[in-house]
What does this fold into?
Amino acid sequence: MLNAADTSFAEQLEKAGIATRPVTEPYVEELRGNYRGLSEVVALPVSTQEVAQVVRLCSQARVGLIPFGGGTGLVAGQVAPAGPAPLILSLERMSEIRAVHAEENSLIAEAGATLADIQSAAEEANRLFPLSYASQGSARIGGALSVNSGGLNVLRYGTARDLCLGIEAVLPNGDILHGLKRLRKDNTGYDLRNLLIGSEGTLGVITAAALKLFPRPAHVATAFIAVPDPSAALQMLSLFRGHIGDNVSAFELISAQAFAFLRTTHPDLRLPFDRDPAWCVLIEVGTGPSTDAETALAETFEKAVTSGLATDARLAQSGQQRAEFWAVRETIPEANRKIGAIASHDIALPLGEVPAFLAEADDTLPALFPMRINAFGHLGDGNLHYNIFPPEGESREAYRDKAPLVTRHIHDLAMARGGTFSAEHGVGRAKIADLERYGDPAKLSAMRTIKQALDPLGIMNPGALFRD
Amino acid sequence: MLNAADTSFAEQLEKAGIATRPVTEPYVEELRGNYRGLSEVVALPVSTQEVAQVVRLCSQARVGLIPFGGGTGLVAGQVAPAGPAPLILSLERMSEIRAVHAEENSLIAEAGATLADIQSAAEEANRLFPLSYASQGSARIGGALSVNSGGLNVLRYGTARDLCLGIEAVLPNGDILHGLKRLRKDNTGYDLRNLLIGSEGTLGVITAAALKLFPRPAHVATAFIAVPDPSAALQMLSLFRGHIGDNVSAFELISAQAFAFLRTTHPDLRLPFDRDPAWCVLIEVGTGPSTDAETALAETFEKAVTSGLATDARLAQSGQQRAEFWAVRETIPEANRKIGAIASHDIALPLGEVPAFLAEADDTLPALFPMRINAFGHLGDGNLHYNIFPPEGESREAYRDKAPLVTRHIHDLAMARGGTFSAEHGVGRAKIADLERYGDPAKLSAMRTIKQALDPLGIMNPGALFRD
It folds into this structure.
């Protein structure tokens, strides 16, 4: 059993030279308002050595800790609503870009650097750091790695995991793992980097990362393309990839329901179509200097129209219009919060299974209760945010008890088709029951064995991934 | 202490319905002739269930086992020259391509499928499986994943790890890990896939893998380009990537010494230049339908000449000539074996450190003893096979005792520049001392903890990665 991180523990930390502060809202309030943490104390180390010292002190005092990034996680990995209050170990004061190696396409960032900070540092070196999503101004790279977050450019550049060459981390015993290699190849023993990435702070605290950069595309073209249905959208993706290879960097699905929500919650937002299509795709193409992105996009769109895969399009005519197009996509989560979802899902499917899943869900869900469905997201990755809302004019409160039912139904359908109940958000505390229900027993057992071996006291993010 | 897999254990396996056979040369003879295994019995399971049964029987009898692929490993991961003879668990009878999902760019292969088998299956579906190296006709995907092998196309497509979406494996306790997901995103707990990949058979037996496929490039151009020195080669790589993005799929460094060896050992091989340049690069560019690869290559080459980064080139004029160019590159390891290396090294460096490393090695190595150096390999990945040979007319036997000295020197230089002593071959039994010397102590300690937790009896590839 762990002890709470109380004021007397805070005094111990202060005595050891570690800055602390009492928690304020952002440290204990989950973004969607579904969880509230019990933590009282925030530790604010300024160096990897200080992080190691905090971990050792927690270990000695049998106090749990939550490695804390930007607090933007969506599965309650960063808030402990039960159990002895863990220490919040915030990386916010470790936010330096330690080095930029433009010629090697890499940089070294501390865990507290925000995605936006890293994007800017890359841009200054005329490079691209492609990890990008709505919360990039506050999401920190340590947290992004700890859940292996994805976002808008995974199709071309991969998830946080794929963008990481090496990490520095503090292990549960206080050891510092020195793994900031800038190597593309290094086969020297177990892959602890990838074990820590995605472990949601339960095996250690990532303190810095060596990250991949990419050449900035010379030409970018962005368009909304209306499609008859998701199946046509996927065939169109194939068409695009056949013609312009891996230059397709984003392929986002948006439905008429999403546009309807945006028209309600954000009436000033400029939407692409006067009459919202049932389904459309936001596509972005980025090319090198020798290929004109707009021409490539327009030509392939024409082929899609001829094949009956597309019906209409709006091509961004300027950088400003491209930003407006992306604002539409990135405002969807906020609109959803304002409307108030009964249940949100972060599912992924093998690409070929997406259309059948959507049809099956459409056919079977309304039998549960009347609802509105907003399915949107990263179609190119097979990753949909499949969210359920009350009928117009009703509040989600009236349906709160139905959330588990609908979630079970959606996850069952996705899993039966070889999918997953968590594509890019992680498990945290919110999806432990799903992990137990759907997880491979051999995997769960090996996970417990590894957790027990590396963190025998259970101080690292107690209550996340595993039931207390 | 483990027991040997002797004839009486073979009888036990047979009784349980598992086919066995006495070992023959290929199972105990390492390719370069530096190691000879003691094993006596080969088990030949035909299904994942049979693999699990073999593992359980080994566990009950305290018998070690070596998961065995094509036997092409270069670090003695597959041969046990000491200790109680382990069972050879060969995956050769599990070589099916279980499914091809062309529209999703993925396929499922059993561990015993060779890289060439998988390449063919991909090609039949008009797709590319890019993992490729000289031994691809015999190397099996299970072994390739277990060492996270690399090869010729890593620059564009990544290593074996990067090409794997999911694995099925048998864990040391006999549990079957069902992880053959065809998902691009799946954040549901610890990344056991990547833990097993690169663990060299010490944490389990990979029995099948879900692998990524890619569109086949519509146009391919291949050229030898002579460069003044490795630094110019790297600048030229930057130039190419700036102009044609990630369409550069291979960027191999070859020196005059490599050509000289080839002229001696393979006098009938057609070499690209009449007078071998001091350094040259074999570059391959693959593009989509809308870009002409030859033009892109030729235009960028002209820019390189203007900038003083290249001096001469031979562009392959046909598919046959392209094959001849690659034969030159792929014959280098065989030529090296015929000449007889004193010591071979598989180092990698941050790209920016490669030229300084080469200069420093050139400056300091000759003080050890007279030698010839053949440094070649995957320059685009910072990965060099840096091999040391006796002076002309002398045999490597006379220098055998100097091998540790020169290896230490080369690894010291590489590590001091943030490099690695094993880029793509792994650690096996050959590089355990290097791992102990250069490995991060926190990493080594965590590795031991994980090994002990998941394989408490130590039956999985005993003697590999860890000293017995």
In short: Chain B has a mean pLDDT of 96.
